[in-house]
Design goal:
This protein has 13 helices and 16 strands. By secondary structure, the protein is α/β, with parallel strands linked by helices. The protein folds into 2 domains: 284 residues, Alpha/Beta hydrolase fold, catalytic domain (Rossmann fold, 3-Layer(aba) Sandwich), CATH 3.40.50.1820; 70 residues, no CATH class. Strands 2, 3, 5, 6, 7, 8, 11, 12, 15 and 16 form a 10-stranded mixed β-sheet that branches. A two-stranded antiparallel sheet has the order 1-4. Strands 9-10 form a two-stranded antiparallel ribbon. It starts with a helix and ends with a helix.
Length: 366
């Protein structure tokens, strides 16, 4: 409600409709107040999408919330706009991302200051029972990559005035979302042309998620979901969540996963077949099989904080960049002084000063 109080000359529209079945391309439900303004502020809409790709037998909700930012004066013009799809991090959601990033204010100010021309921003909710989809097609949890790159994109193009072409679609994200942006960019270059990954997590099995880490021993000792989510097992729950995406095992309760490393008699055992499944899903190892897709991207950038507490992120980000360089794949890579979250949305942070101008430069606005 703070947004409503801050805006002038606004009127509130509320509507109720049916859930969206994307395969039929019908309107989604407006499940909250839509703020339409006659001044220089953008509008936030919340929609629900019923996804056929996310149907499952384990209780994951196939009805997904989507937060959409429409630029100033969207309803007073017939103009079409490029779209940036932003993917949230592990444990987060579209609502959390809006709260932390304050995207409506951020984009209003960026457009006013001419850091970017008017655009549409889309934030899909991919928070799951285990706190994140990893933007991956899974036999267990649903086809999240296809949902994002096919159903969601088709829904946005069908229901909003977009420039419905790859040259006008950007994909970005932070942490798990940065992972998703890179991975989906590699898998769907016909959908997205421009990619920006902030502090991308899980690019490869290294450091605290690699074979020399003690974390897999701790995970072996966790036997219930309640114990996993006790507030102290952030990385452990992240690995379990990722395993439900990369290496699900429907016959192995309680988490229904196989892990790449396990402990037997206090000794770590590498599970080669499971490591292969993970490598098929982690961007560093995916490069070899997706060279042409990567080369077809108009622009690709990743950045990371030098002092990130998740130490695999700086390490694997450099690995990823160096491997791209060996294959002569054009991209931008930058390390800055900062941690995992502290230089993302601040006035001197990456979103305002790097990500937004990046998309202004490389997306097509006509």
């Amino acid at each position: 409600m703070k947004l409503i109080k801050r805006l002038l000359f606004c009127f509130v529209i509320s509507g109720v409709g049916s859930f969206t079945n994307c395969s039929k391309n019908v309107n989604g439900e407006i499940n909250s107040e839509n703020i339409t303004c006659l001044n220089e502020n953008g509008q936030i809409q919340l929609r629900k999408i019923y996804s056929n790709y996310l149907l499952n037998n384990i209780g994951e909700n196939p009805i997904r919330n989507v937060t959409i930012y429409l630029p100033p004066n969207y309803h007073q013009k017939d103009k079409r706009y490029p779209v940036i799809y932003f993917l949230h991090g592990f444990t987060s959601s579209d609502a959390d991302e809006m709260k932390v990033g304050k995207w409506n204010d951020l984009l209003d100010q960026a457009i006013l200051n001419k850091k970017i021309k008017p655009i549409i921003l889309v934030l899909p909710n991919q928070h799951t029972q285990y706190q994140g989809s990893w933007y991956t097609n899974s036999d267990l949890t649903g086809l999240w990559a296809d949902f994002t790159s096919k159903e969601l994109v088709n829904f946005i193009d069908d229901n909003f005035r977009t420039l419905a072409k790859r040259e006008s679609r950007g994909l970005a994200g932070h942490s798990m979302g940065g992972f998703g942006a890179i991975k989906l960019g590699m898998l769907y270059p016909e959908v997205f042309s421009t990619i920006y990954a902030l502090s991308p997590a899980f690019l490869g099995l290294e450091k605290e998620i690699g074979p020399d880490a003690k974390i897999f021993k701790k995970i072996n000792e966790i036997t219930t979901k309640k114990e996993l989510f006790n507030g102290y097992n952030f990385l452990e729950s992240g690995i379990i969540s990722a395993a439900r995406a990369f290496s699900p095992n429907l016959k192995k309760p309680p988490f229904y996963v196989d892990l790449p490393y396990e402990y037997t008699n206090d000794c770590i055992v590498a599970k080669k077949d499971i490591i292969t499944l993970w490598q098929d899903n982690l961007p560093i190892y995916m490069i070899d099989d997706h060279l042409e897709n990567l080369k077809s991207l108009k622009a690709l950038k990743l950045d990371w904080g030098r002092n990130d507490g998740l130490t695999h992120i700086p390490f694997t980000s450099k690995m990823f960049s160096k491997k791209l360089e060996r294959f002569e794949i054009q991209h931008f890579a930058e390390e800055y002084i900062g941690g995992h979250n502290d230089k993302i949305y601040s006035a001197d942070g990456r979103v305002v000063n790097e990500l937004i101008p990046f998309f202004d430069m490389y997306l097509e606005f006509k």
